[in-house]
Amino acid sequence: MSLIEILKTLANENRLTILEWLQDPVAHFPPQKNGDLIEHGVCLGAIARKLGISQPTATNHMKVLVNAGLVTPTRNSNWVYFRLNKEAVSLFLDDLQNKVATQK
Predict the structure, then answer these.
(1) DSSP states of 10-72 as a string?
(2) Which of 47, 60, 80, 82 has a CA 20 to 30 Å removed from the CA of 39?
(3) Mean pLDDT of the chain
């Protein structure tokens, strides 16, 4: 995904907040019954509840983040968990810095 498309993805406050939370899920979410926060990621329902939005709205936000490559989904039975793709975030930040540093 292009730098501009990722910036558009991050321009939404809820999506940016989700990324902040996924950076340190143990600090932002209670333990889950059906999946480890670190190993599996955070359940969609927990993200929706914490944001105070419906699950369909949370699903839409997560699809955008997944399509941007910033978040990785993992399906476990009927549950979908999400983890921050730290490598993709790091590459995005490097690309942004290189783009800004080379602009005159």
Answers:
(1) HTSHHHHHHHHHHHSHHHHSPPPSSS-TTTT-EEHHHHHHHHT--HHHHHHHHHHHHHTTSEE
(2) 60
(3) 92
